[in-house]
Amino acid sequence: MPFLIDPPLPDIQFTLRRQFKKRRFRPHQQDIIIAALGRKDVFVQAATSFGKSLCFQLPAVIDRGITIVVSPLLSLMLNQVQALRKANVDARTLNSNTAMAERDYIYQDLATGHPLTRLLYVTPELCSGDRFRNKLKLVHEQKELARIVVDEAHCISEWGHDFRKDFKRLSWFRETFPDVPIMCLTATANAQVRQDILSTLGLDKTAYQLKTFTMTSFRPNLHLEIRFTSDEANDRYGDFVSWVKGVYERRAQQPRKAELDRLKQRVDNVPGIIYTISRAECEAIASALRRDGLGARPFHAKLPNDVKEETLAKFITNEPGYDIIVATTAFGMGIDKNNVRFVVHWRMPKSFEGYYQEVGRAGRDGKASYCFLYYSREDRDRIASMVVRNAPKDDGGNNNRQARLESMTRLVNYCEDTRTCRHAAITKYFGEAEVPDCDYACDWHKDPQELRERMQEGLASEEWVSTQRQEGRFDGYCSD
Ligand SMILES: Nc1ncnc2c1ncn2[C@@H]1O[C@H](COP(=O)(O)OP(=O)(O)OP(=O)(O)O)[C@@H](O)[C@H]1O
């Protein structure tokens, strides 16, 4: 077992201020950190933008030894490593893109048994390899393996929307290092997914040493709205452009303009993300918006890495021409820009959790932000056929197919529901008993009657959609 320390509270506060440059903890962060430093296994479920990363980064800085962070996305690892290195924390990442020299350095560092690296971000695939496993055994023998962190832990569960089968193999950690604490974190787990995470990682066998923190998924500053449309109306583009230009016009009026000038902010620097389903649509919307004088850029998996990095960097630093990112889900989990003022779903996402994750990119500074989703019944059928076709067919395939269909169906119900607060529907989905206190932050609270009328007028009839479906009109749709 690694060397134990029992840091007094002032050390934790000091590290928060000195290393992480934060003035105070957000609610619950300190309790989670104390549980981790007390060598408990920890399960954290909290809303998007809660500040989950700090809950393992701060203990990693205080504790002796190395913390291994398993994360599913390369971009997410890179963001976190860059931020930590800026804060003078020796954080690194080992993945398929790591340069040879850095890879050699990391393996040599691990081979000493006393690594200097504080946090090492790795992919689940890497954790299955003998080379990495043998090095970790060495570090463990030297009592220098402080903690294993599984970020985006819902990827473990085949009942989750984002199941990755290499996450299942993370059971190796508890089997091999029973004395090393494990922390897992997610924003999107229902009861079944939570149970799956705990049993896969072996944490349910020693429940007495597990501390569970489940916080609300409610994000009060997100204004949620569904905009109803149909293939025939085909009005998304015009609707969006007039909405965003309206926002710019309001910002151009006094006294707002004088205030923006004082803050050295452009009228059109209203950062936002538009999520699309396909790469072709993503490119087409971005170029159309640019032709209309808006600063929009595409972001999808097939773009060269340097273009993606430049786009992300310029979006984050509010460069002119990079105000709106039109993205596929490649631009999803973990993007942490604090002033994203809107998230638009051009089409319905494939899962409820995906929707929650994506709107969660907005308003991370706590200020009001606008999220609307263009919903059509034709898209519903296209996406359903896509979900069925793309569900994994190997390990866990059947359960996962069922889970994905269920999640998509729940999102359809959410979109067509005109009798419930949107925030209440979300918290209910994640199993919360308490109804959140939505302060007119959804279309139902703003005007339930208007919502019903908009739906009635906006959607194609079920009869029409079903005829189209029988003719196979929605079958060949694919995303990338
Ligand atoms: N105590 C704090 N004080 C001020 N800012 C904080 C604090 N804790 C975290 N933050 C900031 O909040 C933002 C969100 O944190 P983080 O990226 O860890 O969120 P998250 O919970 O992982 O969200 P998601 O699930 O959406 O990725 C970051 O910019 C982080 O620096």
UniProtKB/TrEMBL annotation:
Residues 33-207 form the Helicase ATP-binding domain. Coiled coil: none annotated. SUPFAM superfamilies: P-loop containing nucleoside triphosphate hydrolases. It is found in: Nucleus. PROSITE patterns: DEAH_ATP_HELICASE (PS00690), HELICASE_ATP_BIND_1 (PS51192), HELICASE_CTER (PS51194). Belongs to the helicase family. RecQ subfamily. This is ATP-dependent DNA helicase. It comes from Diplogelasinospora grovesii.
